[in-house]
């Protein structure tokens, strides 16, 4: 009754396609996230699909899937951590200018007008909401807006 044309025999013939479909679904899930969540399952499913060439055993295929996925996780996790540490935001140290004092080199006539200031030995374009600020006046840096400093006169 179960010999020759059983459901299990037909199911086994479709296993390579099932593993590949699973790998594709996991790859789509991985592409939809910003974290590494399912890339290891993609690798495991591809290896399980390849194993169907050599064995019809679902148990062996499943063991290959689980063991390769776990091995991929263990091997790639430290590599991913190193890459993430290297890709952290690069600090330019420009924040150190906030709160520092300097001197006006070219007048800042109004809030829209850009002048030049010298702070910590560096020359910057600057604007001030406390305009006008005249040449040789002392200023304090309030913020950095792109490549310009927002300054106020020091009283």
Features:
155 residues, alpha+beta, OB fold (Dihydrolipoamide Acetyltransferase, E2P), five-stranded mixed barrel, 4 helices, 21% strand, rod-shaped
Whole-number total of structural domains: 2
Broad shape:
rod-shaped
- The tally of strands reads 5
Helix and strand content put the structural class at: alpha+beta
Q: Which spans have pLDDT < 50 for at least 5 consecutive residues?
A: none
Largest sheet: 5 strands, mixed, barrel
Q: Classify the beta-strand content into a percent band.
A: 15-25%
**Strand order across the largest sheet:** 1-2-3-5-4
Radius of gyration, taken over Cα atoms and rounded to an integer in Å = 32 Å
What's this, in brief?
The protein is α+β, with helices and mostly antiparallel strands.
Overview of this structure, please?
The chain has 155 residues and is α+β, with helices and mostly antiparallel strands. Helices cover 43% and strands 21% of the residues. It folds into two domains: 7-86, no CATH class; 94-153, Nucleic acid-binding proteins (OB fold (Dihydrolipoamide Acetyltransferase, E2P)), CATH 2.40.50. It contains four helices and five strands. Strands 1-2-3-5-4 form a five-stranded mixed barrel. A hairpin with a 2-residue loop joins strand 4 (138-145) and strand 5 (148-153). The radius of gyration is 32 Å and the shape is rod-shaped.
